[in-house]
C-alpha cells in the first residue's frame, strides 16, 4: 500500500510539474507575443518620426535652394545699386569741379573788370588833366 501511495504521489507530482511547465510555456509565449507587439509598435513609431524627418529635410533643402537663388539675385541687385551710387558720386564731384571752375572764372573776370575799370579811370583822368 505504501508503494502504491508513493507511486500515486509521484504521478501527481509529475502531473503538477507538467502543468507548471505548460503554464510556464504559455506565459513565455505570451511574453514573446507582447514583446513582439511592443517592438512593432516602437518600430512603427520610429518610422513615423523618420518619415517626418525626411519630409522636413526635403522642405529645408527646397527652402535652402530658394534662399540661395534669392541671395544671389539680391547680391546682383546690390552690386547694381553700388555702381549707380558710385556713378552718382562721380557726377556730383564733376558738378563740384565745374562749380569751382565757374567761381574761379568769375573771380578772374572780376579781377580783369576791376583792372580795366582802373585803367579806364586812369585814362580819363589823364585826358582831363
UniProtKB/TrEMBL annotation:
InterPro entries: BLOC1S1
Reaction equation(s) it catalyzes: L-lysyl-[protein] + acetyl-CoA = N(6)-acetyl-L-lysyl-[protein] + CoA + H(+)
Biased composition (Basic residues): 1-10
Protein name as catalogued: Biogenesis of lysosome-related organelles complex 1 subunit 1
Protein family according to the UniProt entry: Belongs to the BLOC1S1 family.
Renumbered residue ranges of the record's region Disordered: 1-26
Source organism (scientific name): Maylandia zebra
Record's compositionally biased regions (Basic and acidic residues): 11-26
One Pfam family of this chain: GCN5L1
GO biological process, one term: endosomal transport
Record-linked PANTHER family: BIOGENESIS OF LYSOSOME-RELATED ORGANELLES COMPLEX 1 SUBUNIT 1 (PTHR13073:SF0), BLOC-1 COMPLEX SUBUNIT 1 (PTHR13073)
GO CC terms: BLOC-1 complex
